[in-house]
Design a protein that fits this description.
The protein is mainly α. It has two domains: 20-74, no CATH class; 82-113. 49% of the residues lie in helices and 0% in strands. The protein contains five helices and no strands. It starts with a helix and ends with a helix.
Length: 113
């Protein structure tokens, strides 16, 4: 695969199937991911793979915290957010995405899903 194929084949996935991923595939993905470059060669990896009831509890807790306005505790902080033309583009893309998915503006539950 050449560089053009990598860049042109890139996709951002935002919708996921509710179907289990085989353990062998998860292991393979993590083993490959560990070869990614890191800042100052620190290899700061810790993986937690969960499924079933544990995953359901994590999902539920995350939704509850988000809806309650509890700030997240990210290790890596993004900037203060987009402004100007970049914010306009972000909003425009979100509107197109929700329209394509048939999600109404006032359907907060589906917009958060």
């Amino acid at each position: 695969m050449n560089f053009d194929d990598v860049i042109l084949g890139r996709r951002s996935i935002r919708g996921y199937l509710k179907k289990p991923v085989p353990k062998a595939l998860v292991r393979e993905v993590l083993e490959i991911a560990m070869r990614a470059p890191t800042s100052l060669n620190t290899q700061p990896w810790n993986f937690y793979v969960v499924a079933g009831d544990v995953l359901d509890r994590i999902r539920k807790g995350n939704v509850e915290r988000n809806l309650a306005g509890v700030p997240d505790s990210r290790e890596f902080r993004m900037g203060p957010g987009y402004a100007g033309v970049h914010r306009e583009r972000q909003i425009g893309i979100a509107k197109q995405l929700f329209a394509a998915m048939g999600i109404a503006r006032d359907d907060k539950e589906r917009r958060q899903d």
